[in-house]
């Protein structure tokens, strides 16, 4: 009996930790969903939230020793199988030198490490099946345990992920954006960019040492690929010798950018990055947050 309890606790902890780490780095997890190209910008956040909800649900299920369900055991098996197949695909496409995101950005896992984790979780689940085999054949739970687990899963998901579906709010009154300051700050744009010819455009201030800026850069890369008509300009701060590798790792191609020294960068962006601006007629009309940064919304707002 003690072994059975320990196995359920271990599996519960694995799924609850996985759900929580994905939730606190929700934007990064959503990016991985988008990167599969199976869903678009509008559906990706809801699918990401559904995955997190399922992990919370499974985690709370194994934490409740009084409740045994064939359906939830099979759901767990399917969950492990689907993610293991995804990990093998990720391994084939990007190799093993990436964080698969199975534990968010907080706990980095390579695809092989995550595959081993899933195989071990599958082994634990098999042992739980064996322990429960005799009782499950005659055990018929009522509806209330399912309802309780669903409520716990929904509440945990709602508390730990950011609001979904919100749009950037316009600034009132619109703040003037002096794009000449960028050119006058001492660094010429690496790629020529005529702001005057593109009155409606998107500007992102990113520090290369900032984790949230890394997520923003990856989202911007996806936006540029899905909506190449959106004029985008990046203002970067960091070690100029690392800018090439930084852009390559973020998947950024054909997006004009400039490097600014720390003082000039902070004068324009402030102390908190990333700073994202939607510029219309030289006025900052919208300032999206990281979680509001999606291609569909940005494209519509710049029309």
Task: Please supply descriptive tags for the structure shown above.
about 300 residues; alpha/beta; Glutaredoxin; 2 domains; 6-stranded mixed β-sheet; 11 helices; 6 strands; about 10% strand
Please characterize this protein's 3D structure.
55% of the residues lie in helices and 11% in strands. The chain has a six-stranded mixed β-sheet with strand order 1-6-5-2-3-4, with helices on both faces. With 303 residues, the chain is of the alpha/beta class. The protein has helices spanning 2-24, 26-35, 44-63, 70-94, 111-136, 143-160, 180-184, 211-226, 243-250, 262-269, 295-301, and strands at 170-176, 200-207, 232-237, 257-259, 275-280, 283-286. It has two domains: 2-160; 170-301, Glutaredoxin (3-Layer(aba) Sandwich), CATH 3.40.30. The protein starts with a helix and ends with a helix. Helix 8 (211-226) links the parallel strand 2 (200-207) and strand 3.
């Amino acid at each position: 009996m003690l072994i059975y309890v320990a196995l359920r606790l271990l599996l519960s902890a694995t799924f609850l930790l996985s759900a929580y780490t994905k939730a606190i780095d929700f934007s990064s997890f959503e990016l991985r969903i988008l990167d599969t190209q199976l869903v678009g910008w509008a559906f990706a956040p809801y699918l990401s939230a559904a995955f997190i909800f399922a992990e919370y649900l499974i985690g709370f299920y194994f934490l409740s020793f009084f409740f045994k369900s064939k359906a939830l055991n099979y759901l767990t098996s399917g969950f492990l199988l689907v993610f293991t197949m995804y990990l093998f695909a990720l391994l084939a496409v990007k190799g093993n030198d990436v964080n698969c995101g199975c534990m968010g950005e907080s706990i980095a896992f390579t695809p092989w490490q995550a595959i081993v984790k899933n195989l071990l979780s599958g082994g634990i689940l098999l042992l739980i099946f064996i322990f429960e085999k005799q009782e499950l054949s005659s055990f018929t739970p009522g509806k209330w345990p399912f309802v309780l687990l669903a409520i716990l899963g929904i509440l945990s998901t709602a508390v730990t992920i950011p609001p979904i579906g919100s749009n950037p709010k316009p600034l009132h009154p619109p703040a003037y954006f002096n794009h000449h300051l960028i050119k006058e700050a001492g660094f010429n744009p690496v790629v020529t960019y005529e702001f005057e010819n593109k009155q409606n455009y998107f500007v992102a201030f990113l520090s290369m040492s900032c984790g949230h800026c890394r997520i923003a850069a990856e989202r911007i890369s996806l936006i540029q690929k899905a909506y190449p008509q959106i004029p985008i300009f990046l203002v970067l701060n960091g070690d100029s010798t690392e800018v090439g590798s930084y852009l390559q790792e973020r998947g950024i191609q054909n997006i004009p950018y400039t490097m600014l020294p720390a003082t000039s960068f902070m004068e324009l962006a402030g102390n908190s990055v990333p700073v994202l601006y939607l510029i219309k007629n030289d006025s900052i009309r919208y300032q999206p947050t990281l979680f509001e940064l999606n291609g569909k919304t940005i494209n519509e707002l710049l029309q």
